[in-house]
């Protein structure tokens, strides 16, 4: 039974960390969902570890499910660069309960028959334990596969113009990544945070030296410059050029279409409806979560960290993930609409915009995000004010028009009364003066 379920849910499980939340604690997600239905995993004796200490290459679809007598966890991962064999990777932090509710709902949408499966497993706690363990393992294996693929391919995407530029010095294909990050002169500018890029451009060599000497600390306070189109860089506007960096766009194409798709001409290429990742998971649109996942994989491929973990010095990958989502999680904003339309055209080769993107709470209300949200609110307020002023202007014009019409009617009416008065007063004419007319009296006297 478990083997059948493994085969049934294998594909969907591989997309949980990719499309649901890159850093979600899957065990806690299941625990929260079952607890809301009155089933306590701890009381039932279901023990599952999810400490994010092992990202492996994605298993094949026909890989056997874990069994009671020996799970896949016993295999040797010492040669896999995506597995932290020293066990020092940090555990996943559990999201807030309201976020769990949203993620649980999206998980059920992703795996429609999950409710029925969980109901059956409530009567088979051993099976439930192995099932959740399988889901976790498959999800992390998929993330590990993405990490390895980006690590191997990123060197081809770093040169701005691959037809004339080459990566110098070349980076090693070995598991070690010490020749990346700020140790590499062509990678360093891609990792510089947006808010520090102006300082970097003044003296790149000095900036890099200070970073390596830890005189300048690289944090997640703002997004790295590989997310931006350098030609659109504006030190006063963090939205300018965001999501349009050449390396970021290549990473998006790589993620959904593979290396062969990266340098294809969007104008001459066909739709991605039958292409790898989107075909496998039946994805119809880019979401903020998927875009943030790609951004994190690119950032990790560029850094010096050998094993998957959320912290690179003072740079927190989880916070970066959340920041990218926050940038793109306001579908009513004009900039967000324009950016998502651009990404769909460049990456998916179509004009469709993302739809039905679930809200994600901003867990890091830092100054950049506050400024971003303030700027968007200011745009909305400005549009509202302009609409109100336009309405007032139209109302005033209508009032003046009506007043002018009433004045014209009054003037016309007054003119008519004057004419009527003249007719009544002089109806006998000059030859027909009244009895009191002195001239008439004089004529009669003579």
Automatic annotation (TrEMBL):
Regions of compositional bias (Basic and acidic residues) in chain numbering: 378-405, 422-436
Regions of compositional bias (Low complexity) in chain numbering: 406-415
Pfam families referenced in this protein's UniProt entry, alphabetically: DUF6698
Region (Disordered): 50-103, 353-446
Residue ranges with Acidic residues bias: 83-101, 353-365
InterPro entries, per database record: DUF6698
Coiled-coil boundaries: none
Signal peptide location: none
Protein name per the record: Uncharacterized protein
Species lineage: Eukaryota, Fungi, Dikarya, Basidiomycota, Agaricomycotina
